[in-house]
């Protein structure tokens, strides 16, 4: 598939999330320890996770360190990826999209070209 079409599909899927009010920009996303419970608490404080059977959430980050990966891996409602590696299907499959400011700038540069 041509690169321009892939970029346009990603842009359209991001626009759809914004229009649905399912696009949330965070300053940063860090956990102090590599505890899944701590990461789950962050999502409940953001009111994007309401427990079992909750919405699928996609978290886009600029970089993923080891502790963060360990704390996010066991959350069944969450998938996470680097902003530079995400694609349109991943964005459309998620019900909510969380992205950090740094990841948003990376994604914006990637879409522009």
Q: What are the main properties of this structure?
A:
5 helices, globular, four-stranded parallel β-sheet, 46% helix, 113 residues, Ribosomal Protein L4, Chain: A, alpha/beta, 17% strand
Describe the structure.
- With 113 residues, the chain is α/β, with parallel strands linked by helices.
- It has a single domain, classed as Ribosomal protein L4/L1 (Ribosomal Protein L4, Chain: A), CATH 3.40.1370.
- Helices cover 46% and strands 17% of the residues.
- The chain has 5 helices and 4 strands, in the order αβαβαβαβα.
- It has helices spanning 3-19, 36-45, 66-72, 88-93, 101-112; strands at residues 23-26, 57-61, 78-82, 96-100.
- Strands 1-4-2-3 form a 4-stranded parallel beta sheet.
- The longest helix has 17 residues, at 3-19.
- It is globular.
């Amino acid at each position: 598939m041509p690169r321009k079409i892939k970029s346009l599909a990603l842009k359209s899927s991001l626009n759809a999330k914004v229009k649905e009010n399912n696009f949330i920009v965070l300053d940063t996303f860090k956990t102090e320890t590599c505890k899944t419970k701590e990461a789950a608490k962050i999502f409940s404080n953001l009111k994007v996770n309401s427990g079992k059977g909750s919405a699928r959430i996609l978290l886009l980050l600029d970089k993923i360190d080891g502790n963060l990966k360990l704390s996010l891996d066991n959350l069944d409602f969450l998938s996470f990826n680097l902003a530079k590696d995400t694609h349109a299907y991943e964005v459309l499959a998620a019900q909510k999209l969380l992205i950090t400011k740094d990841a948003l700038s990376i994604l914006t540069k990637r879409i522009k070209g």
